């Protein structure tokens, strides 16, 4: 349950920055740059094989309307779970954010120039000293997006709504966080108490 709440918060933060037409304040920018550098690489995500199979089968069925190929779905889901878990985010909330951001199109580009599944702004590559990174690469995009969302969630003391608004660049407004939370409740939510 803790991973789920963290995932939603971090996804929100990434979306806010991903849609921002300009970089955050210099202090936030430096703080996030340092955070991204220190956390960009992490370990595997599933506790055991059974948990992996249950989650992957369940989510694959939910993802089918967006991605028809079963192998592509499973590879994407493993990547999402890994990157969300490394960032201490709930994978099902990251799925909701991706649905809202790009509708699972890894080549999506926004009017503001945000790229990939999680709609990450290209200036982040330069900010963290990785100018050659490809934001349309699924794993790269997920890594950036999840860590940016994680940063905003921590900055907002676990408040998913404000973290998601920051991620989207709509801080102070709630239309974007409401869209993500609505997608989460309708398609991706997992009741971990069962």
UniProtKB/TrEMBL annotation:
The Transglycosylase SLT domain, residue ranges: 80-173
Name listed for the protein in its UniProt record: Transglycosylase SLT domain-containing protein
Gene3D superfamilies the UniProt entry points to: 1.10.530.10
Family the entry assigns: Belongs to the transglycosylase Slt family.
Superkingdom of the organism of origin: Bacteria
Signal peptide: 1-20
Record key words, sorted: Signal
Organism: Oceanicoccus sagamiensis
């Amino acid at each position: 349950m803790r991973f789920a709440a963290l995932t939603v918060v971090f996804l929100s933060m990434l979306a806010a920055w991903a849609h921002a037409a300009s970089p955050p304040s210099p202090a936030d920018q430096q703080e996030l740059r340092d955070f991204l550098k220190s956390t960009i690489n992490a370990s595997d995500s599933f506790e055991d094989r059974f948990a992996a199979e249950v989650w992957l089968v369940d989510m694959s069925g939910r993802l089918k309307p967006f991605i028809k190929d079963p192998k592509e779905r499973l590879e994407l889901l493993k990547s999402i779970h890994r990157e969300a878990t490394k960032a201490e985010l709930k994978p099902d909330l990251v799925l909701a954010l991706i649905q809202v951001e790009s509708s699972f199109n890894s080549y999506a580009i926004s009017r503001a120039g945000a790229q990939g599944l999680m709609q990450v702004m290209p200036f982040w590559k330069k900010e963290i000293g990785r100018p050659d990174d490809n934001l349309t690469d699924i794993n790269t995009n997920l890594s950036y997006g999840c860590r940016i969302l994680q940063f905003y969630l921590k900055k907002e003391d676990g408040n998913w709504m404000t973290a998601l608004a920051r991620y989207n660049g709509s801080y102070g407004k709630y239309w974007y966080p409401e869209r993500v939370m609505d997608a989460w409740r309708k398609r991706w939510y997992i009741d971990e108490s069962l």
